Amino acid sequence: MTDLLVRNVRVESATTPCDLRVEGGRFAEIGPGLEARRGERVIDHGGRLALPPFIESHVHLDSALTAGQPRYNESGTLFEGIQVWSERKRTLTVEDVKERVRRAVRQQAGFGIQYVRSHVDVTDPELTALRALLELREELRDDVTLQLVAFPQEGIESFPDGRALMRRAAEMGVDAIGAIPHFEFTREYSVSSLDFAVELALEFGLLIDVHCDEIDDEASRGLETLAARAYEAGIGERVTASHTTAMHSYNNAYFIRLLRLLSMSGINFVSNPLVNTHLQGRMDTYPKRRGVTRVKELTEAGLNVSFGQDDIVDPWNPLGTGNLRDVVLNGLYVTQMMGRSEIEQSYRFITHNAARTLHLDDYGIAVGNSANFIVLDAPDWTEALAFDAPVVASYRAGRELVRAKPVRREILF
Ligand SMILES: [Zn+2]
Q1: Nearest to residue 167, comparing CAs of 139, 224, 133, 127?
Q2: Ligand 1 centre from 373 Cα, in Å?
Q3: Mind listing the pLDDT tens digit for each residue in 287-341?
Q4: Is 258 exposed, middle or buried, given 0-12, 13-18 or 19+ CB atoms closer than 10 A?
């Protein structure tokens, strides 16, 4: 492995540039004005921003790039999306899934993503998508870290053999257990599905990531059950509640009571602002709810929140590209987190906060860690966000994964 000296990058929010020395695939030295050594490859990034790689903390790769197959979701609701996917799911083959996921992952890589938590639908007696994703997790591991969640799209208690399919997924080697309490037939099923998911995760030593209350129904309260179980088992940091869009509609008296439990539990949250502003509020007339969870309040309470894309060109998002910059931008607007420091810190939603959710160690630009990092065509994050700066380089263990030449436009007047 060639050693590398990366010159002239601004790391995260640093105002002055520094150099990064990579030896044996790890950061060996970080500081200003490092001397090049014999045999070392030297790359100068001209004072651009360097960040740890972006992390996609919530996406469904199994359905990626299937929009229009067999038909488009014309109502734009979550539930029509589930129906369309259920039809497409019958025609899945391992090769079909692998071919689409490879394309989607390469597209994500171009946007600086090196870590992906993908939910995989296991409400399929053949578990075709899961078999494909498990193979890809190994095949792609040098280029991207894939974390797989057993996701019961059509329910655990409400789908034939739902519990057995979840158990088989755990035995096959998923990283995390999911659930979908708001989709279960009854409130009782919702509670028992969460109890089952937590017990299964504990039995297999797995993480938990629940599609939790992704509905505009203020009475959807899977979150309190999940948080209570996580608190009682002392596993909050291993548990994630994704979406929690019903929280948008909770009355404040209930939310404030709930916040105490959430803080005690220490669970993580993933919000998917782009997709949920598209899917939620569809049964409203006006005023029309945004349907995004209370990111600002959760963050201010010290809870860990990350942002995800959720869907890439599929029945739930025909325009999802995989670019997390779009997600952060939309998230800041829709949650009204537009204060100067909120904007400056917002890269954390797709880097450090997401790393905590995924339970990654060996993450971040620091001596001793794997030399995984990206370089953006801007001097700082606020400018990168505002002007949609492309990722000009992505390195993994010091190896170049992505190289891009920034487009220089001439304005002819
Ligand atoms: Zn999702």
Answers
A1: 127
A2: 26
A3: 999 999 999 999 999 999 999 999 999 999 999 999 999 999 999 999 999 999 9
A4: middle
3-state DSSP assignment of residue 124:
coil
Ligand 1 centroid to 281 CA: how many Å? 17
Provide mean pLDDT across the span 86-95.
Answer: 95
Q: Are 349 and 98 in contact (CB under 8 A)?
A: no
Distance 219 CA to ligand 1 centre (A): 20
Nearest to 4 by CA among 183, 29, 16: 29
Per the listing, tokens 């010290």 go with: 302
**CA 302 to ligand 1 centroid distance, Å:** 24
* Domains of the chain, CATH where assigned: 4-52+364-403 (2.30.40.10), 54-357 (3.20.20.140)
Predicted confidence at residue 1, as pLDDT, reads 66
Exactly one of 214, 232, 344, 410 is catalytic; which is it? 214
Is residue 218 annotated as part of the catalytic site, yes or no?
Answer: no
> In the numeric block, which tokens belong to residue 69?
């197959």
β-strands 373-376, 41-51 pairing: antiparallel
The span from the CA of 26 to the CA of 362, in Å, is 10
In the reported structure, the alpha carbon of residue 292 is separated from the centroid of ligand 1 by a whole-number distance in angstroms of 13
- Residue 3 Cα distances to 32, 77, 221, 373, 404, angstroms: 18, 51, 52, 15, 21
Amino acid at 38: R
Average pLDDT, the chain: 97
Six-digit token string for 396: 């993994």
Structure tokens at 226: 């999940």
> Considering only CA atoms, which of 7, 5, 8, 10 is closest in space to residue 49?
10
> pLDDT grade, residue 406 (50/70/90)?
confident
| CA–CA gap between residue 47 and residue 368 (Å, rounded) | 23
**What's the average model confidence in pLDDT over 229-252?**
98
Distance 59 CA to ligand 1 centre (A): 6
Q: Which of 271, 214, 205 is nearest to 240 (CA)?
A: 271
String of DSSP letters for 340-389: HHHHHHGGGGGTHHHHHHHT--S-SSSTTSB--EEEESSSSHHHHHHTTP
